[in-house]
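Per reviewer request, we include the raw input and output of the structure prediction for the construct analysed in the revised manuscript.
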Amino acid sequence: MSNTAFVSTAIPYVNAKPHVGFAFELVQADAVARYLRLIGRDCFFLTGTDENSLKNVRAAAEEGLTTRELCDRNTEFFKALLPGLNISNTEFIRTSSELHTRGAQELWSRTKPEDIYKKHYSGLYCVGCEDFYSEKEAEDGKCPEHKTPLEHVEEENYFFRLSSYEEKLLELIESDRMRIVPASKRNETLSFIRGGLLDFSISRSRKRAGDWGIPVPGDADQVMYVWYDALANYLTALELTDNSERLKKYWLECDKRIHCIGKGINRFHTVYWPAILMSVELPAPTEVFIHGYLTMNGQKISKSLGNVIDPLVQVEHFGVEAVRYFLLRAISPFEDGDYSESRFHDVFNADLANNLGNLARRIETIGEKAGHVPKPAATPEAPEGYHEAMEDYRFHDAMAALWAVATNLNQRIEKVKPWALQKEGKKDELAVFLDEMIAGLGIIGHWLTPFMPGTAERLQSMFKEGKAIKRGDPLFPRLK
């Protein structure tokens, strides 16, 4: 088994500033990458920005900017999320970069010649999705995702012969060689394939693309369709060349190639992308984890709809650790989940202030009064169910297993009453009890790393071996 892993987010358009919906995906992917590193894997974690879309071209025109100016400016907002949310990415790829351009053209050139052909077509197009919809899918002529009117488009483009990959894709997914999580999304993909695959367009006319995008090799009048070019980023960041060590280490010889994506782009990643990889004779992803949407009052949070929440403002108000906790524990990894500040307050006070924060404070206070010095400890085993939950991307369940440890420790404090042991001068009993508490906090401190790395580090520092316990600032003061 390879000791390496590859983890990626999808890459968002940069037509506007990022919102908390993308922050949700970032912290999920970061939890996956940090967990894999925690159990000993060398993990390459990729994120970036999707810049070659018509959506970006039109947003730039509305502001009186060139597309390059808009992309350069807005990409910085996405980059700011990385330190702001304490994201441990290895690389940040921009699809307008020279590295990506070379790699995307290389991917096109490696595609089997019989899988690419040119034809004239017409259809209903959504700029927001950068995708075509059938009249059946488009109720009242509107995009099912964005609820905006679709545009009728007619032109000549290059197509990829997706129809010839039906059987291979079914075998890939049914065998779980490409595992799709959750099962409902796996079934959705299989149903889509069994319904019959149509070839899909992989280019646009340079004119309709606003003279923006990656040129199709050998045809100056066409640029790559944004979804073809965007999917390529997973390989271009690893340098798609014959002698790339990165590509060899983190894709070709890597047995965990994981994409973390939102449900709206399922078929692009579980149908189109593996078919493209089959055509160029490269291995498919091994796992695709598909999350639901964040909602506000039941409606999807999106730049298009304008109901956005700035994640960095939330971090400023509540702290990065609390924001990460809420997104990973209070929101289902698979279903849509509502984000509200009132719910945030409730979760913060109940789980962080009253449970874990209060527990750490009590042990600090008792330990300092007793002059207790923690003993050396081995790496603790994870609580029951933790690893299984992480394998299935059930972050909320893995964290619940850690919070169960905290609840048990709080209950032990109430039962043993260490303050009474201290008052009665039972130093040996108190020392044994404190060692038990610190061992429990050690379990939390170690296995909390994927979700709340800052809190995990603080817990480990507060009860460090050989260092007398001293009270510091509380982990999570109650919110008013």
